[in-house]
Description:
mainly alpha, 0% strand
Amino acid sequence: MLSVGEMLDISEPRRTALLACAVAKARARVRDEFVVMLSKRMARHAKRAQEELTSLEQRHKASTEQLLVAYKDVLTVLREHIVDERAGQSGHQGSLGGVLAVKRIHEVVEGSGGFDAQLAEIEALAACRGGNCRT
């Protein structure tokens, strides 16, 4: 950069051209700094979004695994009940067996959080199908 005395020694058209170049260079530097700042901010937002997505995926995976375990137990109880009925229990005993099976299923579901909690989990998982998560 030139001092004031040196600028006064330069002719008017040249001085105007030098000032225009200095302004253009300053504008380019400011624009570049702005782009760098914006890029860093967008990278922070993208990183936070990725962390949140990972957290959501882990929560949904844990919920899905818990639901699978609970319904595996339900299916196991039902299968045992069906095998017992086929083994020869019929008539009054069969209906009592059905009541007992339903009672055992109810105990399994309640032990896994209850009907309302599991239905809420299922609805939350259904809301995230196809990448359309609403939490």
